[in-house]
Amino acid sequence: MATAPEESSSGFNNFLQSPLGSNLALGAGIALVASIMIAVWMWGQKPDYRILLSNFTDKDGGSIIAALQQMNVPYQYSEGGTAILVPAERVHDARLKLAAQGLPKAGNAGFELMENQKLGVSQFLEQANFQHALEGELARSINSISVVASSRVHLAIPKPTVFVREIQKPTASVLLNLHPGRVLEPQQVRAIVHLVSSSVPDLPAQNVTVVDENGNLLSDQADNGHNNKLDPNQLKYIQEIQEGIVRRIESILTPMVGAENVRAEASAEIDFSHTEQAAEKYTPNNK
Fold first, then answer.
1. What homologous superfamily is domain 49-101 in, according to CATH?
2. CATH number of the 123-225 domain
3. I need a labelling partner for 268 at 20 to 30 A (CA). Which of 109, 114, 179, 224 fits?
């Protein structure tokens, strides 16, 4: 005697084998495949978002979001909220429109500050604007280095004086914010030091300090590493000295023992350090 579950299963199988059941099963299969295909197509049509701006202040972030909403540009947040992403095909258009509105405003201002000066501005304010503009231009140049995310430059330029004893040299401090997982090589630190030094009159390289976002003094490490290295001109000079010594030794010994019996080598150690001395002489007036 067949049980109830067996009768139900048999009835379901008979229904599937009937023309109506076969048509319903075929329709359900087609609907399932179509649903999967539509889901895959819609997932493929999802726009590719790219970074529009990053490392902006909270105030600039609010202004940027408001501007994107006015332009009906969809956006997303990424990297812990430090970056705004928009569809890839609208990145350049959105950047140009934001730049036309002066966004972001917290960027380093350069010599465009000098273009907005009013007539009758004081000499002190003019010098302060020039110094601030120079700091901004130097920061822009440093930011072009691939491992540097952002930077700030502070210049301390003393007032000119006619008294020789009171003359002070300018100093500079550079604060670097590096990309995550990136480091600056010693030669890159020295390049930043010389970039800043050569951009400010009378600023010696030893008066430039470079610090990263973790408070590490990079310029000191670069100087210590550079003290044990020689530049190409110094190496060339040492090589010329050594070759000259070898030639003189060979020219002395060759007539005595023959050209094939002489082999000379020379190693020169040259101290390239230099010192500066200043002297003041006072000659009493002869009466």
1. Hypothetical protein rpa1041 (3.30.70.1530)
2. 3.30.300.30
3. 224
